[in-house]
Structures are given as C-alpha cells and as structure tokens.
Amino acid sequence: MSKDREFYWRRLHSLLGIIPVGLFVTQHLLINFSATNGAESFNKASEFMGNLPFLWFLEWFIIYIPLMFHAFYGVYIAFTAKPNTQRFGTFRNWMFVLQRFTGVFLVIFIAWHIFQTRIQKALGTEVDYNHMVDVLSNPAMVVFYALGILSATFHLSNGIWSFLVSWGITQSPKSQKVATYITMVFFVVISVIGIGALLAFK
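RESULT FIELD:
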C-alpha cells in the first residue's frame, strides 16, 4: 500500500471511529443505562430505537459498514504498527498497546453481542430486558460483557486522544497532556454508565 493511500485510509479509520462509531457506542451505553430504572424503562427505550424510521438503512450505513471498516482495518493496524518510542513516552506506548489489544478483543466481543441480540431477534427471539437477564445469568457472560464494556470505553476514550493528535488538533505537549486528562475522565464516566447498565440486568 502506498504511503499516500495508507495516510488517507488511516484518516478515514480514525474519523469513523469517532463519527459515527464512537457516537453510537456512547448512545448505546446510555440506552442500556435506562435498565437501572427497571425493565419497563429499558424495554421502552429499546422499542423506540427499534422502531426508528429507515432502521435498516441506519443500521447498515451508520453502524455496521463504518464499524466493519473500522474493525477490520484496525486489526490490520494492530498487527502491522509499532509503538513510537521516540515520539511518545512509556505511558503513551502502553496506551498504544492497550488500544490495539482492546481493538482485537472488541472484534470478538461485538460479533458475539450482535449474535446474541440482532441475529437472535431476526430468528424470532424477543430481545428485551428479560432476554438480557437470561444472558447475564451466566457468571462467565457477566465477566465477558464487563471486559467488553471496559474495552469499548477505553478504546473510544483513547481513540479520541489519538484522533485529536492525528488530525492536528492537539499538537503541543501541553495540549496533549490536557487531552489525556479529559479523555481519562470521559473513560471513567462512560465506564460507570456501562457497568451500571450491566449490573442493572442482575
């Protein structure tokens, strides 16, 4: 792959990771968090999302296609990229490694989550509050989903930091340090929302 083409592919990968994939992940966690108000609240929120107009178009062109490109190209990056030890310090290189690790894990987790929800729904299963309670009645699934949520929230949060750097928004060391603090706070907030939603099905 030529340098110019790879540059644009990486830019597209970075952009899609924030818009629309990152926005969808945040919205999805917030919808799931409605479960903390009980089954009726979650089912109502889920039903509203399931009855959006042009749902098929929205799912494929706003979620699945961008997500698949971001995931598969991300796997390629994970197995070909190397930490930049000259430009960034030890902390940022650990973030680099975790970003790649969580990205690969998320490909597995999201595929399984889609199977347990969208595919099961297409096969006639009622995917509602009780369905998720049944799924999470297995302690192994609770651990798997907790790891999936934390991987997603970290990957998004650290991805925002990388996006700001790669798009030239945070160029100075000071601005990158500020962005680190902001994205870490974001990580904690959406992780609490995600894990809170998970525990609501217990």
